[in-house]
Amino acid sequence: MSDAFRDFxxxxxxxxxxxISYHRNFSEVTSGCIPALIExxxxxxxxxxxxxxxxxxxxxAAARDRGAEAIGVDFSQAQVRLARQTxxxxxxxxxxxxxxxxxxxxxxxxxxxxxxxxxxxPDRASAEAYRVLKAAGRFAYASWHDATKCVLFSMVYDAIxxxxxxxxxxxxxxxxxxxxxxxxxxxxxxxxxxxxISASEIPLVWRVSSPDIILDAISSGSVRTAAxxxxxxxEDLEAVRASLRERISSYEQDGSYAVPATACVITGRKxx
Length: 272
Prior knowledge:
Blueprint: H1 3-13, H2 16-30, H3 34-40, E1 48-52, H4 58-65, E2 69-74, H5 77-86, E3 91-94, E4 107-113, H6 122-132, E5 133-144, H7 151-163, H8 182-191, E6 195-202, E7 205-208, H9 211-221, H10 224-230, H11 234-249, E8 252-253, E9 256-260, E10 263-269
Parallel strand pairs: 1-2, 1-4, 2-3, 4-5
Antiparallel strand pairs: 5-10, 6-10, 7-9, 8-9
Helix pairs in contact: 2-9, 3-4, 7-11, 9-10
């Protein structure tokens, strides 16, 4: 992928307003994968753990709570600032998932929660995770499941496709759903030389009080999908919003809405 995609994604996540909106709107959903990540990586007291694409630092903090020495790294200065403000007793540093600022074999585990879909080259990020792991160390990452199972984002992209356009001139990047597709993920970690690769489905749900909350949160607290939405015509955007209201309404439960946002946790082990 081109540097243009990396620059585009970094500019988006380096916006303080975007970082804070993601923290406020998505954290309750995405944090649901953390127990599975911690278990998949077999983190115990005394382990040294790296949380890549750490965002506000939830995964690093969870590893710390397990007794691990946790470090978070993110390429966005805004995210690193937010993480440092949120968890004062965890170390957070600026760095790129595709060029980690750490030596070979430093960590017992590398974790990544919903960051792989934002890197220009997921293969390179997987190889870097492999490099900084100790022998027998584990890499575990979470990503939205493929489009057939992640109803939340698939319905958004379907609505845009039906009522607007996905071709809005953004820099070319990896497929949004690829890293959560099991076959793709297994092959990718295999290319990075991981063994004992496994995948587990995480049935996350986004609960909101109004259908409009979801589109508003995505518009203000994401980068790639937000950019696609912002480049629709006002008429097309309103049609997208109306379509999503109708689709989300089918998930109404006692006055609120519970939309499936299924994720996948992929794990690989570095050989001895």
